[in-house]
Amino acid sequence: MTNEPALQALVARVNAARASGTPLAIEGGGTKRFYGEAPAGERLDTRALAGISSYEPTELVVTARCGTELAKLEATLAEQGQCLPFEPPQFAPGSTVGGMVAAGLSGPSRAAVGAVRDYVLGATLLTGRGEVLSFGGQVMKNVAGYDVSRLLAGSMGTLGVILEVSLKVLPVAPATATLRFAMDEAQALRRLNEWGGQPLPINASAWWDGTLVLRLRGALAAVNAAITRLGGELIEPAHATSFWHGLRHHEDEFFTKALAAVEGGARLWRLSVPPTTPPLALPGEQLIEWGGAQRWVCSAAPASLVRDAAARAGGHATLFRGDKSAGAFAPLRPPLDRIHRELKKAFDPSGVFNPGRMYPGF
Fold it and tell me: pTM score, two decimals?
């Protein structure tokens, strides 16, 4: 890793914070400050440690430092006809690579291609002891014990500062098409589950307000065959691109309305449930992604009602935006709670990083 002055400045800041007992709130562009519990502690800005360390297009691997702007990384990949296939949301300009991994959020294609953690090959971490540790590498391989580099995805900065990360990238698919169908929620879920068991190049799906939208992606012959087989209305490419971009970055109509409702006292929930879960009888508006596995609910209903519905379905509910007095994340069962706390103790024994960002105590 180069940019030694920026790295040493971060190490010195962490050592000073540990010695004085001062908590630090790790932050890059601040575009996900709303996510999880409120950040606590002095801001630790990671943006000085930026840039692409290495990029081997023929090997489908890129290594970037934590403060690298995600938009710049994706532009570099696009020049080589490659991409981050999990479509990480940015929400606002300035989103960074470190924040992308720490938040662990994926976009519309997640059900088809995998999540952020599935593309993390290796990472360098600054621990709460002031140690710089490297995990994994730049190739996929089997390892014994914890795969720490992937463990960092979704850790919300509670384990340490993600200094650098190596990511698997993929070529942009040669063909893409978007289809639109008019159908109610129950019918949409039924069709999505039927199609999910067939060899169709479905890359993303979204249902809201009586309309199901499918994105097909893959070889031209496969996409054309699926268009003929599925029917529906073929959406003009420019309009389709705008729609999926808006859905990915929460700029489309559903999320625009949801954000306005949140300002008025509603909450925006992100539910993770089995894709075969039937319609959830919850008040408010719902948008369904990932073949039925991710359901966004904008509602003023009590938190217990939403969380109970998700739990009964075999999933969980995250309070994404709005009043988080009920806790942002669903309570952990005792075994998982113990694992979380032991990991926090191993990497950040003094509790320097992002205290309480996920749960009280870590």
Answer: 0.94
pLDDT tens digits along 7-33: 999 999 999 999 999 999 999 999 999
Candidates 1.10.3470, 3.30.750, 3.30.70, 1.10.150; CATH matching 175-248: 3.30.70
Cβ contacts of residue 91 below 8 Å, gap of 6+?
31, 32, 249, 250
Direct distance between the N- and C-terminal alpha carbons of the chain, in angstroms, rounded to an integer: 28
Residues of the chain with pLDDT under 70: 1-2, 137-146
Between CA 111 and CA 202 the distance in angstroms is 9
CB count within 10 Å of CB 131 equals 12
Q: Which two tokens stand for residue 112?
A: 């088809």
The shares of helix, strand and coil residues in the chain, as percent rounded to the nearest 5, are 35, 25, 40
CATH of domain 4-171+340-347: 3.30.465.10
